Amino acid sequence: MSESNTYSGNDPRLGLLLDGIVKLAAGDLNARIEVSDARDEIDAVIMGTNLLAEDLQIIYAELEQRVAARTQQLHDAHREMQLMAMTDPLTGLSNRSAFADALSDAQETGHNGSQRPAILLLDMNGFKAINDSLGHTIGDIVLETVARRISGAVREQDMVARMGGDEFAILLHNVTPSMATSIGNRVLAALDSPMEIDGEHLRCGASMGLRMAEAGQSAQNLMMEADIAMYESKTDGKGKLKIFQPAMLHARQLRNQLVGDLKEAIAGSQLILNYQPIIRLDTRGIEGVEALVRWKHPTRGIIMPDEFIPIAEETGMISDLGGWVLRTAVGQLQQWRSDPLTASHNFTMRINVSAADLQRLEFVEDVRDALAEAGLDPSLLVLELTESAVIQGNDLDRYTLNSLRRLGVGLEIDDFGTGYSSISYLRRLPVDAVKVDRTLLAALGSDPSQPALLAAVLQLIRACGLNAVWEGIETEEQADYLLSIGCTSGQGYFFSRPLPAADLTEQLKHHKTWPIS
Hints:
The chain has helices at 3-10, 12-25, 41-85, 96-109, 127-134, 136-153, 177-192, 219-235, 246-267, 305-315, 318-338, 355-358, 363-374, 387-391, 395-407, 423-428, 439-442, 450-463, 476-484, 501-510, and strands spanning 116-124, 159-164, 167-175, 195-197, 200-202, 206-212, 241-243, 271-280, 286-297, 301-303, 348-353, 381-386, 410-416, 433-436, 467-470, 489-490, 499-500. It has an eight-stranded mixed barrel with strand order 8-9-11-12-13-14-15-16, surrounded by five helices. It folds into three domains: 3-72; 96-244, Reverse transcriptase/Diguanylate cyclase domain (Alpha-Beta Plaits); 254-504, TIM Barrel (Alpha-Beta Barrel), CATH 3.20.20. Helix 2 (12-25) packs parallel to helix 3. By secondary structure, the protein is α/β, with parallel strands linked by helices.
């Protein structure tokens, strides 16, 4: 046997080399093999193995760093996605999902003696009119301004969220009812001041509901009851804070029942029309009748429109209701004009039109079809529009009004003088007449300045090239005074209350002038 073979076979370094390779294979990159002074072939292999271990260690460290960096990136991206999923993109506030989660957490941990969580739910008043008339860009700026004002009026620990559209919510932590009310009123005051946006001075207040949390209640029920309180605020004149009371829940349940009943009423035969004459003050002859809808409920009896019209507007049933009124009123006018005993009275039919009707492209065709079916000239129909709907209308409203005017239908502003009146608007509106609200006449006789005011209002209307009809005439003195200042048309209980078609038909057959003695 040669000397080198004997040496290699008995060299202890071979065992160390083998152990080192096994450790490297097992993942121990810190393992190193000692190099001898011989500097022979075995040492060369040992040195190569050590260098391989060092390279692997460097590579592994770099890999760990990359994995850690990528993991952090994924974690940050996940957090960003979570944040986006819980944030309203327009205002930067929390969104509905984040609010619901925070409310649930507060219900579990936030009750502390007399202090507990509370919800303030608010809805903007007049925002739709701003959005429709000035565009969504201005509307978005309004919402951003509202978000900043709300955030500035609450405490640092409170949560403000945009629930969608123009609805916002505030989660108050650890408050008493009086504390919550104080914060809510502070928010309302902050929203009440005007905003100057793109040269426009805008005012957009809010209606607010407050619900104090009770232990064990679900977040969903708390939000529903806060919404009920907010709805009460809207129906009570807006701009107020209403605290939820159990009686409100019962009222909402009754309202929901009424919604279902109204659907049946429109589809069935529960709706009726009464007709109130409009009289020429000089001849006391009839020049028009206003169709006024009533609901003959099977169990509640007669329900007046101020109770069910708002429900129809909120639920989208107002167009179906308006269509029924249009067809029925036009059909009744056709009957009066076809009957020899009533045809001598040459008068118009007036019906009220909702803002929702002006937004329907089909509305003009509905009017044209109803008149054609009855064989009536369009000039025999006068549509009464609320002042706010005409003034705050958008391009589609103006298109509808101009189309109706081209059709030959009369257009009249209803309830003039209730808060929106403007000379500049009056001169530009595509209308023929103005019906002055009854409140202006009510003070005649008790307020010494009222006669001059009434004369000035009439002069203003005439200066704009419009005719005037005065509502609320209840005495002969009122009728005589209006005639003395040049007003020729009026309506009110002095002449006649709203009457069923059959009763008015009898009066038309036997009387030429009003009031009927």
